[in-house]
Amino acid sequence: MSGGPILVWGAGAIGATLGAAFIRAGEEVVFVDAAADHVAAINAAGLAITGPVDPHHVTARAFVPEAVEGTYDRIVLAVKSHHTAATLGGVARHLAPGGFVVSAQNGLEEHRIAAAIGAERTVGCFVNFGADYMEPGVVLYGGRGAVVVGEIDGRLTPRLDEVFALFRKFDRDAIRTANIWGYLWAKLVYGAMLFATALTNDSIADVLAIERHRPMLVKLAHEIQAVAAAEGIRLEAFNGFDPAAFAPDAPYAVAARSFDEMVAHNRKSAKSHSGIWRDLAVRKRRTEVDAQLGPIIEFGRRHGVATPIVEGVIERIHDIEEGRRQLDLAWLDELDAIADAGAAA
Questions:
Q1: Contact 109, 102 (CB under 8 A)
Q2: Cys-Cys with 124: which of 94, 143, 180, 245 at CB 3.0–4.6 Å?
Q3: Rounded to whole angstroms, how far apart are CA atoms 60 and 23?
Q4: SS3 helix, strand, coil % of the chain, rounded to 5?
Q5: How many CA atoms lie within 13 A of 253 on its CB side?
Q6: pLDDT tens, 177-212?
Q7: Helix (H, G, I), strand (E, B) or coil at 127
Q8: In this predicted model, what pLDDT tens digit does every residue of 230-262 receive, in sequence order?
């Protein structure tokens, strides 16, 4: 059994929401975050979790990476996926012998973590709850969503039982799985749709509800599902997203029903837009697009699977990051054209 404080590296939307729940459940948590103003606010006035789900306030300790000391048996890594590589050196220095890192991130960061610190010290995690960093010391928990933990080799171990028990302190409906990669790849399919919605100022639910763009989003899902199938991944369903509905041989009516369920799920959340949109429209910074969607292209090339719509999404996100485009629903019409061209080829 691991013990001692939990080091939560990354006190943004995901890390702060998880860490605050762990504190309230009696765990000792130490936060690490690169934003000095956020760290100062947490140390001065605590961490406030706002929103309709479970608003609360906790007293917490936080450090910038250069100031944290000691080693920890349990580290929850919750930085943006494009910051993983730069963070892992610090994480490794503070990981106790025999300790482990849980990746509470989007993307396939477990591959990167395992390569840096060892597969045997890496635990997979899938999160789909809605949260946003609002201001120093304040994070919005806007809507519940699936939380899943699993060993990256699929074993059901006593360590996984321990991590599962910890994450149930955040959400009593957390899941323990032997197929964490199935959840992570499924989130890539859903995440690619979120990147498409972030090309506009419309909410996630509003974009997913637009009938004329749904065929393109289905084809986007087909591209990623084809890559996942080539990797031997069996996708898992979550929160209205049903991978079977987006299989190449699935009737369109089934996909339409899954879209409707995703629209319903997102309309219940106080988090109306994705974190990707927030990065582009509010915080004016780079997104995780390369770290999350880039590997799809890389894996696809290994297997000879073309991914033109994924590439189109990445190109347009880059254009917005660089100021060459503004957020506009018209970019989805361009993606529709790419999808139609692929179908005609």
A1: no
A2: 180
A3: 8
A4: 50, 15, 35
A5: 0
A6: 999 999 999 999 999 999 999 999 999 999 999 999
A7: strand
A8: 999 999 999 888 899 998 889 999 999 989 998
Q: Classify residue 231 by burial, with Cβ atoms within 10 Å: 0-12, 13-18, 19+.
A: middle
Helix (H, G, I), strand (E, B) or coil at 170: coil
Nearest to 307 by CA among 230, 241, 221, 229: 221
Residues found in the chain: 345
SS3 state at 142: strand
Band the pLDDT of 344: cuts 50, 70, 90.
low
Question: What's the token pair of residue 119?
Answer: 């597969």
User: CB-based burial of residue 46 (10 Å sphere; 0-12 exposed, 13-18 middle, 19+ buried)?
Assistant: middle
Tokens 């990354």 -> residue? 10
Which phi and psi angles does 203 have, rounded to 5°? -70, 165
Phi, psi of 339 (to 5 degrees): -65, -40
Cα(16)–Cα(212) distance, integer angstroms: 38
